[in-house]
Design goal:
The protein is 46% helix and 18% strand. It has 13 helices and eight strands.
């Protein structure tokens, strides 16, 4: 074994369990939300534009059918080639994307169609142009409006769920997460750079942040961890997508059975109870 191979092997052994999950969440073969939408839903008809500035290529919204029922589905677009990734801003939404999502959610509410969001986003785009056009306000507006939508809502963290970029689409009745996905306020590399001035401590930061599906489930930030095939959903796409579809089917049936007033009240109560202080000994 070469010195380089030995070094890589030692690094793999030294990696924390949390960092191993992060590597699976970021695996280049892991299906992006749009692939999941194409395989799980039918008759997807995309809606473009926020009716204020433009159309964000990083966020796809459209009406579709799930088991024959009409729903609104929202997904993050990252792109497969370098050209596509640049066009879609590497999957980092601008304020137009969040406003487009909210506009379509209001349409779904008008026609009493459930809302399903599939999320794989590192963060909302932090560029100057996005900030000038109201990135923070767009995210805050979504948090407010989603908390009181009068239709069943489900979000699924399929890869990375990063900070407000993910939360702006995840104030829903049910927040689900795939087994190898992560949900965090900041990427471990960013936390390591802040805390230890060195991203080499990223695995240490990953453990401290408690980013894994089981961690955020224990913290009460998600409602269910959806199992994946051995090795991750990219190892067996068909089986993984069927597991995801089954979970969506089950939760959607439960939510549709709830009266609207009770549905909204339960959603708001859930998110109010998440933000609790705690300490560990």
């Amino acid at each position: 074994m070469s010195e380089q191979e030995t070094e890589v092997s030692q690094q793999a052994k030294a990696a924390s369990p949390a960092w191993a999950r992060i590597e699976r969440a970021r695996h280049p073969q892991r299906p992006y939300p749009m692939e999941l939408i194409e395989r799980i839903f039918t008759d997807f008809s995309e809606i473009h534009g926020d009716r204020a500035f433009g159309d964000d290529e990083a966020v796809a919204c459209g009406m579709a059918r799930f088991d024959g029922e009409e729903v609104l589905v929202i997904g993050i677009r990252k792109g497969g080639t370098t050209k596509e990734r640049i066009k879609r801003n590497f999957g980092m939404p601008s304020p137009e994307g969040y406003r487009k999502a909210l506009r379509t959610m209001k349409i779904a509410e008008k026609f009493k169609r459930p809302v399903i969001a599939l999320i794989d986003v590192t963060a909302a785009y932090p560029g100057m142009g996005a900030e000038e056009r109201g990135q923070a306000e767009a995210i805050a507006r979504n948090l407010l409006e989603m908390s009181r939508l009068r239709v069943p809502t489900i979000s699924v963290i399929t890869g990375e769920g990063g900070s407000g970029g993910a939360l702006a689409l995840a104030v829903t009745d049910r927040v689900l997460i795939l087994e190898n996905a992560i949900y965090s306020v900041i990427p471990p590399e960013g936390a390591a750079a802040i805390m230890w001035r060195d991203i080499a401590h990223k695995d240490r930061a990953a453990e401290a942040l408690r980013v894994t599906a089981s961690d955020v489930m224990a913290l009460g930030c998600v409602d269910e961890v959806i199992a994946e095939p051995a090795g991750g959903i990219h190892e067996d796409r068909e089986a993984g997508m069927e597991m995801l579809a089954a979970a969506l089917r089950r939760h959607l049936a439960e939510l549709k059975a709830m009266p609207t007033v009770e549905l909204v009240a339960a959603r708001q109560r859930k998110f109010r109870n998440i933000a609790r202080f705690y300490k560990e000994t």
